[in-house]
Structures are given as C-alpha cells and as structure tokens.
What we know:
The chain is of the alpha+beta class. It is built from eight helices and ten strands.
Amino acid sequence: GAPEADVIEKIDIGGIALLRAAAKNYRDVLVVSSRDQYEAVTKLLEDTNGSPSLEDRRQYAAAAFAATSHYDTEIFKYVSQGTSLEGGSQEPSTILRYGENPHQTGAFHGDLGALFDQLHGKQLSYNNLVDVDAAVQLMREFAEGQPAVAILKHTNACGVAQAETLHTAYVNALACDPVSAFGGVIIVNKEVDLATAQELNKLFFEVLIAPSFAEDALPVLQSKKNRILLRQKPVEFPKKQIKTLLNGIIE
C-alpha cells in the first residue's frame, strides 16, 4: 500500500549486485545470502578448516542466485502491473497450436530442441506436451534392461510392457487397453526397427518417442502426414519437480 515512489526508491541495487558478483566467483568465494545460513556456514568453515569444497561453494552460489532471482521477480511483478507484460517474466519460447482446449492459446517456456529432434509431423500441442512429459518420466524407470514400451493417453498409462524384443513389448503393451491407446502417445527405450514400425503403423497415435529409428523403419512411420516422431536426446532431466498451485508453486 505504500506510494509507488517510495517502493521504487527502496529497490536495492548495490546489495543485489554484490551478491551476484560473489556468486559468479564461487570458485574463489563462499557467498552467504541469508542470515538463515549463518549457523550452517559457521559449521562448514569449522569442519573444513576455512576451506569449503568447490561443491559447497557452488551450492551457496546457487542459493544466492535463487535469492536475487526471487527479488527481481517480485520487482517485476510490482512494476509490470497494468502493463502488457503483467503475469509473466519470460517471453514465450514456443507458441503452441492452441492451449488445453482449441479456443485457448498456449506457449511452452523452454528449449524443446535440447530434448528432442522432431523428425516428422505437425507441431506439438499443449496436450501433446503434457503427455510427452508424462511418457518421458515413466520411461525413466525403464532406461536400462529389456526393450520397453509405454502407451499413454491424457497422462495415464494405457499399457506398459517389457519383452525380449521391442515388437513383442509393443504388442503386449497395446493388449492392455487397445481402445484407450487410440490417439495416444507412445514411448520406447530402444531403437524402433522395421518390424515394430510396421506393427505401430496399424494404430492411430499422435506421438512416438524413441532414442533412434532404423533407416528402413522411418519411411513406414512417416506415411501418416500428421504423426509426430520425436528422437529423444540423452539429456538428464531435473530431479526436482515444480508445479503451479493456487497463487504460488509447490515442489
């Protein structure tokens, strides 16, 4: 409720700049960004004889950048009120075909190109991305071992199977619920071979995600104009998950 001039006057410049400078130089500096860290930092310095590890310094640097990021976000939220930028501090990276429903708009804030090579098909939709995320998270459980296939619809697994061959795994996964699998998202943990591609081609699905596609399998799968084929890159996904809730986030 304070006058805007008073709020603007109290925006800190120097303190934030010092925190950022210290955090930037974490290889040589241990930055303390909160009084809540005093006890832990004191113990750390005692335990390490005044020489904390690079890993420890990086951890505190990350906390400092989190603090400055939060501070800048709060300033943005205040200053952007009543402007065209109100409600978001990121420019949309990818404008989607539509939002959760056809009459809504949607955008993805991130770098899909760092995760996938899209080899074929139309642009991913909002709902496609939600299902792709669920599929990728599920298949992380089957990163190693036998060929595995998962079929998802509206983030729910219609079928999941492992077998000696990818073809058999797909047939078994589809058998779990062939009705719900229609129009879904399919993910596999091995290269898609010709036999599997020919079997997949019998089903209408929106998206297929695989680490690779055999040269003779790709033309079979590309026979459907709008079918989305994604080659997943070997990227390590964040372990922490954040979700918007009410007027904030949970993690």
